[in-house]
Specification:
136 residues, seven-stranded mixed β-sheet, alpha+beta
């Protein structure tokens, strides 16, 4: 798998797949280098990751996604390792992410060394579990 920073020419791909991100926020996140694309051996996009900063100072992975045929092959771990290394290179000592309690991703993050750090309850959704990880 190849991982690269998204560019303006990736806007249509992101817009068509990431339904959690408002369209007008895609370009600013790309300019801020906050979206990565995952590509297969034919340079076809197979997924993406985007992040932001919690409290404006702690990297927070908002979304990681792989198309169905590419799941459960270790690519998610590879992508998270890539992101964590990038954040560490930039001097960050801790990263964060979250997932809903009714999603399997919570087990994935714990397996990668993320620790439960709290939760958020919204009126119409399952509990959101917040995770943190110290970068060593």
């Amino acid at each position: 798998m190849r991982i690269r920073t998204a560019t303006e020419r990736d806007i249509d791909f992101i817009k068509s797949r990431d339904h959690h991100l408002k369209e007008h926020l895609i370009a600013p996140k790309i300019r801020g280098n906050e979206i990565f694309l995952f590509q297969d051996e034919h340079d076809e996009s197979i997924g993406w990751m985007r992040f932001s900063y919690f409290w404006d100072n702690t990297p927070f992975m908002n979304m990681i996604w792989f198309d169905e045929p590419y799941r459960n092959q270790g690519l998610g771990k590879q992508a998270v390792d890539f992101w964590e290394n990038r954040m560490k290179e930039q001097g960050f000592e801790r990263v964060m992410t979250s997932t809903q309690a009714d999603e399997e991703a919570q087990h994935f993050y714990r397996k990668l060394g993320y620790k439960d750090a709290g939760c958020l309850l919204l009126d119409d959704q399952a509990m959101e579990i917040i995770f943190t990880k110290k970068l060593i």
